[in-house]
Amino acid sequence: MASLVAVTIENAIATVTLHNAAKMGALSMAAMRELTTAFADIGQRDDIHVVILASEGKVFSAGHDLAEIRGADEPTQQQIFATCAQLMLTIQSIAQPVIAKVHGLATAAGCQLAATCDLAVAATSARFATPGVRIGLFCSTPMVALSRAVNRKMAMRMLLTGEAISAEDALAHGLVSHVVPDDELDSTVSAVAQQVASASAATVAIGKRAFYEQLELSTEQAYAKMSDVMATNAVMHDAQEGIGAFLEKRDPVWRHRQA
Is position 30 within any domain? Predict the structure, then answer.
């Protein structure tokens, strides 16, 4: 069976591309496993500082492969959705920020995938939906990522109606971080990736991990935890180097290492 995922690396930036255009970027079990492995492997590498998640074909991802879900027994269904959850958790757990490059449609688990990534750059023509309710299968696992990215009313609007929202609405409600003309998608994603990659990889890794840790804490707990994180960060080489470079009006020289 041909691989469904390709990984290329250039200038500390990895591009993970889903090659499943024939099925509209469907997240089959094979595709999800390959993506999980690709991200897990990237997470172990010090020479990669940022990841771009892209998809070939006309759409970003149409979600789960419904042909696998149709007729499957409950243990198989549990395996499908557990595999999907593991993919999403792996994306958030690796040190490197992950940027979704979204074109066309991102629906159901495809919308979940975009919502899970740390940043999402969408083409103006992109659309986002969680339409499972229309086929009798509520988008309960996509809801986890969606409800953590947008406000409650927008999340429920998408989940209960199944209607697709525009890229501009996705930006306004926090589902994506950038919206650009279709012909500028490649260049914008590249520019954002290069900007992130230019920072200290160790510092970015600390920041990504801390961001997700503090989200579920109370304000008081978050300040206590993040005060400790900042103190630990502040004594690290790259923080001292960056502060020194700023005060001395020169470019910093980062250590080539993840935290």
Answer: yes
